């Protein structure tokens, strides 16, 4: 059965998962910065895991990811993957924007160009499943 | 830059292996019927009883820890786009283990994604 109607409700659900994924990654990165172990090797791997496993920000990020997964599955049951995937690729746009605003990261033009190529690639990948 | 790049690749390998296990498991199950709550419940019960699903979850968990080790030592705006390497890995895995077809459009999409990752890595 083809489920190809991108209704407003499904669109909102997909955008919500994008925003959710971006916020989850932001929480994870904030948590990692807060924990403060920025160089991970085999020597401090256990300490890295233990300290981050007791970080509230990290668990918030994981929790947002889990809720996201449920919304994503619910959306997929209403629309084809070939339609869901391009909408979902906007997280590649949201994450750098959030990184600039909340993490004071510098995103160069070349990096933006790379993001554009990736989003274009995801559109091609989803287009082929439509046939 | 090479170390985080390799770590993200390893993380996604674990994650994609988990996805393949998920897909293989649900492929062998009868999909739930639309608008039939009982069939959804039954589906969830079957999923929870499938050993491959739990194995897949373990792979995803390890992948997440590896991802965090990579994210700790790189900028988010640099690490996150590289995560899209999962599209390439999924394509290869779907061909090898699920025997799905790969057409020219998929190949083109994959090349675009790889080009984007290369650009971001050298930036």
Could you describe the 3D structure shown?
The complex is a heterodimer of chains A (131) and B (123). By secondary structure, chain A is mainly alpha-helical. Chain A has one domain (8-130). Chain A has 6 helices and no strands. Chain A has helices at 8-35, 45-53, 56-76, 81-88, 91-103, 109-130. The radius of gyration of chain A is 17 Å and the shape is globular. The relative contact order of chain A is 0.16. The model of chain A has no long low-confidence stretch (mean pLDDT 88). Chain B is globular and about 50 Å long. The N and C termini of chain B lie close together (10 Å). Chain B has one domain. Chain B is mostly helical. Chain B has helices spanning 2-27, 37-49, 51-72, 76-82, 85-97, 104-122. Helices cover 81% and strands 0% of the residues of chain B. The longest helix of chain B is centred in the first third of the chain and has 26 residues, at 2-27. At the A-B interface, helix 1, helix 2, helix 5 and helix 6 of A face helix 3, helix 4 and helix 6 of B.
């Amino acid at each position: 059965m083809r489920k190809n109607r991108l209704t407003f409700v499904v669109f909102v659900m997909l955008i919500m998962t994008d925003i959710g994924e971006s916020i989850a990654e932001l929480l994870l990165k904030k948590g990692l910065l807060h924990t403060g172990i920025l160089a991970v090797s085999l020597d401090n791997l256990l300490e890295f895991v233990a300290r981050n496993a007791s970080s509230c920000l990290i668990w918030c990020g994981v929790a947002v990811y889990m809720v996201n997964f449920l919304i994503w599955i619910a959306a997929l049951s209403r629309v084809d993957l070939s339609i869901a995937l391009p909408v979902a690729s906007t997280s590649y746009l949201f994450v750098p924007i959030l990184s600039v605003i909340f993490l004071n990261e510098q995103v160069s033009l070349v990096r933006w160009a790379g993001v554009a190529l990736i989003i274009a690639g995801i559109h091609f990948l989803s287009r082929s499943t439509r046939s | 830059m090479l170390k985080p790049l390799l770590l993200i690749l390893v993380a996604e390998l674990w994650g994609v292996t988990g996805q393949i296990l998920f897909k293989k498991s649900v492929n062998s199950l009868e999909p739930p019927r639309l608008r039939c709550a009982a069939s959804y419940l039954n589906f969830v019960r079957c999923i929870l009883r499938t050993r491959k699903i739990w194995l897949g979850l373990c792979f995803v968990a390890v992948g997440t820890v590896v991802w965090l080790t990579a994210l700790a030592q790189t900028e988010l705006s640099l690490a996150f786009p590289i995560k899209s390497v999962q599209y390439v890995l999924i394509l290869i895995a779907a061909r090898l283990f699920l025997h799905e077809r790969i057409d020219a459009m998929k190949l083109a999409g994959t090349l675009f994604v790889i080009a984007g990752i290369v650009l971001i890595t050298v930036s």
